[in-house]
Amino acid sequence: MKPEIIEQIQNNFILKEKNLSKYATKSSEGIRIHKEELKDDIRPNFYHDIDRIIHSLSYTRYIDKTQVFSFQENDHVSKRIVHVQLVSKIARTIGRALNLNEDLIEAIALGHDIGHTPIGHTGEAILNEISLRETNTMFNHNIQSVRNYLVLEKNGLGNNLTVQTLDGIMCHNGEMLSNIYEPVSKTKQEFLEEYEKCYTDQETLKKVRPMTLEGCVVRISDIIGYIGRDIEDAINIGMLTREEVPKNIKKVLGTSNKEIVNTIILDIVANSLDKPYIKLSNSVYQAIFELKKFNYENIYAKANTKEQLDFYREGMNLLFQKYLKDLETKNKNSDIYKMFLNTMDSSYIKNNDKKRIVIDYIAGMTDEYFMNSIKNINKC
Fold first, then answer.
1. Contact of 87 with 218, CB cutoff 8 Å
2. Which of 363, 373, 290 is nearest to 121 (CA)?
3. Contact 25/214 with Cβ under 8 angstroms?
4. Minimal CA–CA distance to 129: which of 311, 359, 284, 299?
């Protein structure tokens, strides 16, 4: 294609950026971890990130990873892929209303949960126990999400996403609610240093804040994406009735997921338009805070039985010890070689110790693959 035609198409892609808010992140500001020449590429930086994420192998595995409820026979219960798409849509709605960069928002939203383990937050907690015990480092899905794109994708070479996308993924954690979200300026080096500290410093992990307003939008959208939908799922499987949700919460946010999502989005837009931050009104913030507490007590704490939790913990520890032994004995017949290491670049094996490799392998498993791996080991 002729250079002048490529340039014209590139200009068409970023034409809408002329109308973006002065607080938005422009595509021209995108910084990649490694310098890269994109020849004959018509896509802007963050649009390119979206494509790299949705074409990654780990994105495909979203479809069989737990959101809250594992192994339900009800086909209408959300999987991780549904949550990710909901967050993307909600965040892009807010972003469009505030004239922010929707491409950056979509990239962060679609990639934010890629580091989740099988069995959702339960699996994450168990793998964190193993990681602390075996490596003296913490395991958290948001940090593993960054590691996935920095290191694991493309057979251990990484996807080379922009710093802004990776930072938004790292700082997305919707478990930490605030009534105002303000971006913090960072260099590439500062982002990388913060990322490394999150493996060993709990305080850093708690305090990370996005470097862009788009990252702030995804962070609050993560909460909006699950807080009402998890109630609908709980109702669908008979765990909860709509009447059990406290009246004071329903009075502010609404009764259904549709009403909750709409109320919070409109509240954010009204309080954040033409501002360098994302803000919730006090009444909506307090209602979300109380609803999160209600969900933890009535949904998340009851999502798994003690027997299930014991089985998952025993199974994940069994897998860790088995695969670690296979690496130490160079058992090339093991699945960790056949399904993982045999496709990885030699630099990945050289730069990572065996325990870290096993943690990466387990973290990438889908629910079904995790369960089948346990069954196969128990047969031996």
1. yes
2. 363
3. yes
4. 359
Decide: residue 275, CB within 10 A, 0-12 exposed, 13-18 middle, 19+ buried.
middle
d(CA 244, CA 234): 11
Q: How far apart are CA 229 and CA 260, in angstroms?
A: 9
In sequence order, what DSSP letters do the residues of 25-61 get, joined into one string?
PPGGG--BSS----TT--S-HHHHHHHHHHTSHHHHG
Please report the pLDDT score of residue 174 as a whole number: 55
Residues 231, 257: Cα–Cα separation, whole Å: 8
Question: CA 363, CA 380: separation in Å to the nearest integer?
Answer: 23
pLDDT number for residue 98: 98
CATH class of 3-302: mainly alpha
Q: CA 82, 103, 29: angle at the middle one, nearest 5?
A: 140
For the chain, give every domain's residue range: 3-302, 313-379
What pLDDT score does 16 carry? 79
Low-confidence ranges of the chain (pLDDT < 70): 1, 4, 6, 39-40, 69-76, 174-175, 380
Q: Please list the residues that pair with 66 across neighbouring strands.
A: 79
Cβ atoms within 10 Å of 23's Cβ, excluding its own: 17
Which of 356, 357, 325, 322 has the alpha carbon at shortest distance from 342?
A: 357
289 alpha-carbon distance from chain centroid: 21
Q: Note the pLDDT of residue 71.
A: 65
Distance CA 328, CA 341 (A): 13
3-state secondary structure (DSSP) of residue 138: coil
Q: What is the pLDDT of residue 9?
A: 74
**How far are the Cα atoms of 36, 113, 194, 347 from residue 203, in angstroms, in the given order?**
34, 21, 11, 31
Q: What is the pLDDT of residue 285?
A: 97
Exposed / middle / buried, residue 306 (Cβ in 10 Å: 0-12, 13-18, 19+)? exposed
At 267 the pLDDT is 98
Q: How many helices (H) and strands (E) does the chain have?
A: 21, 2
Strands (E), the chain: 180-181, 278-279
Residue 40's pLDDT is what?
Answer: 66
Contact 152, 364 (CB under 8 A): yes
User: What gap in Å lies between CA 146 and CA 311, rounded to an integer?
Assistant: 29
